[in-house]
Amino acid sequence: MRRTAETDEIRLLGVAARGHHGVLEHERRDGQDFVVDVVLQVDLAPAGRTDELRRTVNYAEVAAEVVEVVTGPAHDLIETVAADIADRVLARPLVEQVEVTVHKPQAPVGVPFGDVQVAVRRTKDVPVVIALGANLAGTGGTDPDRTVRDAARRLHRVSGLRGVRVSRLFVTAPVGGEAVVGQPDYVNAVAVARTRLAPGTLLAQLHRVEAEHGRTREVRWGARTLDLDLVQYGDPLAGADVTSTDPELLLPHPRAHERAFVLRPWLDVDPEAALRVGDGVARVRDLIPSTADQPVRLLDEEVGG
Ligand SMILES: Nc1ncnc2c1ncn2[C@@H]1O[C@H](COP(=O)(O)OP(=O)(O)OP(=O)(O)O)[C@@H](O)[C@H]1O
Ligand SMILES: Nc1nc2c(c(=O)[nH]1)N=C(CO)CN2
């Protein structure tokens, strides 16, 4: 079945408020009525499944945001009003695309007219970091390094991901204390990309790729044919990353900052990489020294190229 988020929508129509936007002096002075429609693309399947408000976008909050912009500082153009609203609504993690229409029915047009509207559409485009790992043979006995390479290639075909770049492959000792004793070494890599998908939708796509490679979810920290973790969603240096304490999707990944098997490949693909750690933001290159006790080596070094 086609992913539903591409078709699911919340439509908030006819939000009315008085504002002072306009080029003419009397518009600035007297104000007039503005009417705004907001159409949000949001994957509504999780909310439909659980009946939980936190799994969708609260349209009352969006309406309040619209009124705040319309009644807020005056702009010359309704284009600016529409773009402001669109940017604010799109910053909500679950919103993948937004279309905002601003109507100005009392605009000084000079001739009889029905309505004037501007409509802007904005699509999410967020940097993301995905960690790949494998330490068991896949379906048909595929080696872990082959599985990681295949999965990395597969990421290029995930609808809603673009600009995928993948690190070289690293061989890493299993991390996780007692739980990983006796496990074979892992092959790890990190992919950086941009996405228009909401975090949960992207994670669902990653789970699908894991399943295609024969991943079954059993023991926590158990050996696995393929593990894809969403390490970070958004740019922490711009203060534009999503943080989440939902156990189904913790963001940033709570253990990434202490894992050489994530940090080393990440630095390999992005020397300027930065990660939110608690209240601060650290460069990945500065986090690596404290993981020096975790054995990590380039796979290519091992096979001589
Ligand atoms: N940032 C995240 N990326 C991937 N899965 C996450 C994330 N945050 C929470 N999870 C949840 O963790 C659950 C268990 O995932 P998984 O079995 O891959 O954990 P793990 O790989 O054994 O441990 P770790 O999370 O320490 O790497 C998943 O069902 C998923 O919903
Ligand atoms: N070296 C290494 N150790 C791990 C890894 C991994 O990918 N590489 N993944 C784990 C759980 O996701 C637990 N431990």
Automatic annotation (TrEMBL):
Q: Does the record's keyword annotation contain Nucleotide-binding? A: yes
Give the classification, highest ranks: Bacteria, Bacillati, Actinomycetota, Actinomycetes, Micrococcales
Tell me what reaction this enzyme catalyses: 6-hydroxymethyl-7,8-dihydropterin + ATP = (7,8-dihydropterin-6-yl)methyl diphosphate + AMP + H(+); 7,8-dihydroneopterin = 6-hydroxymethyl-7,8-dihydropterin + glycolaldehyde
Q: Which organism is it from?
A: Ornithinimicrobium cerasi
Gene3D superfamilies reported for this sequence: 3.30.1130.10, 7,8-Dihydro-6-hydroxymethylpterin-pyrophosphokinase HPPK (3.30.70.560)
Describe the function of this protein.
Catalyzes the conversion of 7,8-dihydroneopterin to 6-hydroxymethyl-7,8-dihydropterin.
Example GO BP: tetrahydrofolate biosynthetic process
Q: Which GO terms describe its molecular function?
A: 2-amino-4-hydroxy-6-hydroxymethyldihydropteridine diphosphokinase activity; ATP binding; dihydroneopterin aldolase activity; kinase activity
Keywords from the named record: ATP-binding, Folate biosynthesis, Kinase, Lyase, Nucleotide-binding, Transferase
Pathway field of the UniProt record reads:
Cofactor biosynthesis; tetrahydrofolate biosynthesis; 2-amino-4-hydroxy-6-hydroxymethyl-7,8-dihydropteridine diphosphate from 7,8-dihydroneopterin triphosphate: step 4/4; Cofactor biosynthesis; tetrahydrofolate biosynthesis; 2-amino-4-hydroxy-6-hydroxymethyl-7,8-dihydropteridine diphosphate from 7,8-dihydroneopterin triphosphate: step 3/4
**Protein family (similarity comment):** Belongs to the DHNA family.
Give the protein name, as stated in the record. Answer: Bifunctional folate synthesis protein
State the EC number(s): 4.1.2.25, 2.7.6.3
Query: PANTHER family attached here?
Result: 2-AMINO-4-HYDROXY-6-HYDROXYMETHYLDIHYDROPTERIDINE PYROPHOSPHOKINASE
